[in-house]
Design a protein that fits this description.
The protein has about 110 residues and is of the alpha+beta class. It has helices at about 1-5, 50-60, 105-114, and strands spanning about 15-20, 40-45, 70, 70-75, 75-85, 90-100.
Length: about 110
């Protein structure tokens, strides 16, 4: 995401919210690579209990139904446009996908179209 999307669109008015939480063995805040997304448009959040992932999984009828494992949404991106409203459910969604690395070209195309 850093090199394929953010660096290729340096002037795009974009805000990235990266939410990190424990899912796999070895996931731990102390092991989190803080320089993974170093672009100034990225805000990082640590969600130790995965509440964000559970929320998106619980509201999957409002979003693409992929990337949900055991009631938890993780390794997923959601792209919302400049007209998105964050009321009961964020939207409208432009594109989403999982895994982030596996579908980054799709995300890059959607960001480039903005």
């Amino acid at each position: 995401m850093q090199s394929n999307i953010l660096e290729k669109n340096p002037d795009l008015d974009l805000q990235v919210l990266a939410v990190w939480f424990n899912v796999l063995g070895g996931d731990d805040r102390s092991r989190w690579p803080a320089d993974l997304l170093s672009d100034s448009r990225v805000a990082h959040y640590w969600d130790p209990d995965g509440e964000t992932g559970f929320w998106f999984a619980d509201h999957r009828d409002n979003y693409d139904t992929h990337g949900y494992v055991g009631g938890l949404a993780w390794d997923i991106y959601y792209l919302f446009g400049p007209d998105a409203q964050w009321n009961d459910f964020p939207g409208p969604e432009i594109v989403s996908g999982t895994t982030i690395l596996g579908t980054s070209s799709r995300l890059g195309d959607a960001v480039g179209a903005l």
